[in-house]
Amino acid sequence: MSAQKFRFSIDRGGTFTDVYAEVPGEPGFRVLKLLSVDPARYADAPTEGIRRILREVTGKPMEGKVESDQIEWIRMGTTVATNALLERKGARTLLVTTKGFKDLLKIGNQARPNIFDLEIKKPELLYEEVVEINERVRIMNAKNTPNFEHTLKERDNVVKGVTSEWLEIIKAPDAAEVAASLQRCYDRGFRSVAVVLLHSYAFRDHEALVGQIAKDIGFEQVSLSSELMPMVRAVPRGHTVSVDAYLTPLITQYVSGFLSGFDENISRVNVSFMMSDGGLSPVGDFSGYKAILSGPAGGVVGYAMTTYNKQTRQPVIGFDMGGPSTDVSRFGGSYEHVFDTQIAGVTIQAPQLDVNTVAAGGGSRLFFRSGLFVVGPESSGAHPGPVCYRKGGYLSITDANLCLGRVLPEHFPKIFGPKENEPLDAASTRAALEALTSEINAYLTSTNAAQRQMSVEEVAYGFVKVANEAMCRPIRSLTQAKGYDTSAHVLACFGGAGGQHACAIARSLGMRTIFVHRFAGILSAYGLGLADLVAEAQEPAALEYGAASFAHINESVARLCADTRSRLIVQGFTEEALSTEAYLNLRYEGTDTSIMTLHPRVADADATSDSAAVGPDVCRVDASTDFAAAFVAQYRREYGFVLEGRPNIVDDIRVRC
Predict the structure, then answer these.
(1) Can you tell me the distance from the alpha carbon of 213 to that of 279, in angstroms, rounded to the nearest whole number?
(2) Among 122, 342, 478, 576, which residue's CB has the most CB atoms within a 10 Å radius?
(3) Cβ atoms within 10 Å of 280's Cβ, excluding its own
(4) DSSP letter string over 82-113?
(5) For position 124, what pLDDT does the model report?
């Protein structure tokens, strides 16, 4: 670290914003925790956190814009995108798609999460209007085209796509018609457009034309599915590009607002944001679809880098209990990514850490309904917060733990009250729980006069047990549902409320070891400081895995490696500092369930070596590289069977550097 520069890692959560700062000239660090929303005192919590630490260390007043000449870098994780998606507060978005497929995303994939629900409420669509483009391409092969070889020679409207498949251009888009349609929407106030055309993952020209026309007209945000995530399946690809167009303007606005709180020297500071896949993105490349899990990703990196032991290889469950929710994840030597996730009713096709979230956290509100103890999903948030926050808030899990003595006011930050210098209000919490206990006892008496009355502590503990069971469910989904033994894992406990529940969670799941990090209360922020800057590239394929396809795979891997590595070298990294991972997205022929499989040699290097650098030469595919065996092992563990004799199909080739 530069001897004269500060480094800030900031996690802006739903309730608290945590700041971890490395201070020049000091052997240790500075930690600050403040409410994420406190409009009476500051406009932006991360900016205020940096201001307070700089003021404390330098002695300067730091009024107005924050001086940034003493800052080396700022890394931040934020829930801004997640909250906007949940609350449907993104930009007005226009969807552009192939003619005849206007309702494609509205129809979706016919999934019914609750098949017995008599009152089905479909999630609100992200786009406001649809423009249909009169264009069409189709994939040609010997199965769907008579005299296939002869047809290829005779027709001049046949091209080879990115996947090396042949495509027939049935109808090319008319540029004038496209421009007229987009101009009408622009004149009506649309400034964000999402483009998803059929088969654009393999043939990108039509989307590129539409995108260029939209930019020429003046659309401020143009998202193309062929650029964001060129994978087969139009529905998740369409949802992903819609999310990006919907959220990116909001992300851009937030980032601009954050940077505007600093002086002109902020342009020289390395500012980066945590992406959903656990890697850092330069501020200029941070966009909507990358930001969905920006908040919890820092915690995953934090416990993975500090808890997992490469000698014992004992896998770890991350248990991050925050305010509005609890995030759980698994690390067994490499980050576990998923590519089809559903968040707020929207299927997103993009690499994201496999994080399961349940609406049970320290801020989850407590209710007694029809004789049942109910925890959440409503959250008291940071403002007004739980009753004990001295803001006239709601009874929450934090209040229950305070009543039970699991939260000690003398060890909790004294940031409450009119002057932000008072401890938690235990008396108000007790009074509110006594009122709820009276209501519960009245109900019990009305149903059975001989029913024993409950004490305040029993009521508080009842709510805690309900929350604990809710938090056990996603852990079982990450382990037992995928063929892992839950009891064989270490429980890495962090988050502001994690320590209050870790023992009960471990006991319920049969886990014998709990790891409580020294930075448990701010591990998501600490993890940002340990995270790597990441560049990813991916392209579709349509290959049968085997010796005949090795040359094509190696050519693609080499090209993607060169692309990702060059993007990082431009940002100041040396070749020796870069580590490369190659993946093949494999499935059995005749099925649509694919598994992103890490290169076996890279997996072995990651699991056994402390060295960070894995060169692109390790990522070559040859006869000694048993991708098929790695795929079959993952498939058997997750599904309990394999399909003997079926060829393996490569759908995508991916490189992460």
Answers:
(1) 32
(2) 478
(3) 23
(4) HHHHHHT----EEEEEETT-TTHHHHTT---S
(5) 83
- The residue-averaged pLDDT of 98-110 equals 89
Helix (H) or strand (E) holding 30: strand 30-35
H-helix or E-strand containing 221? strand 221-224
Q: Which two tokens stand for residue 301?
A: 């990196």
Which candidate, 127, 112, 103, places its Cα nearest to that of 234? 103
Phi, psi (rounded to 5 degrees) for 53:
-70, -40
Give me the residue label for tokens 């056990």.
472
> CB neighbours (10 Å) of residue 618?
17
The string over 592-607, giving b where at least 16 C-beta atoms fall within 10 Å of a residue's C-beta and e elsewhere, is: eebbbbbbbbbeebbe
Q: How many CA atoms, within 13 angstroms, populate the side-chain half-sphere of residue 254?
A: 25
Q: How far apart are CA 77 and CA 251, in angstroms?
A: 12
Each residue of 225-239: pLDDT tens digit? 999 988 888 998 999
pLDDT digits (tens, 9 = 90+) for 440-457: 988 888 888 777 889 999
What's the first-to-final CA gap in the chain, in angstroms? 23
Rounded Cα gap, residues 397 and 401, in angstroms: 6
Alpha-carbon distance of 121 to 128, in angstroms, equals 18
Q: Write out the two tokens for 159.
A: 């091209």
The count of residues in the chain is 657
CB 85: neighbour CB atoms within 10 A?
A: 23
pLDDT tens for residues 419-443? Answer: 778 888 889 999 999 999 999 988 8
Regarding predicted confidence, which is higher, 72 or 624?
Answer: 72
Residue range 197-251, pLDDT digits in tens: 999 999 999 999 999 999 999 999 999 999 998 888 899 899 999 999 999 999 9
Residue 501 · residue 467 · CB < 8 Å: yes
**Residues in a beta bridge with 365:** 396
Half-sphere exposure of 85 (CA within 13 A, CB side): 28
Q: State which H helix or E strand residue 635 sits in.
A: helix 627-639
Best CA proximity match to 298, nearest among 495, 161, 112, 121: 495
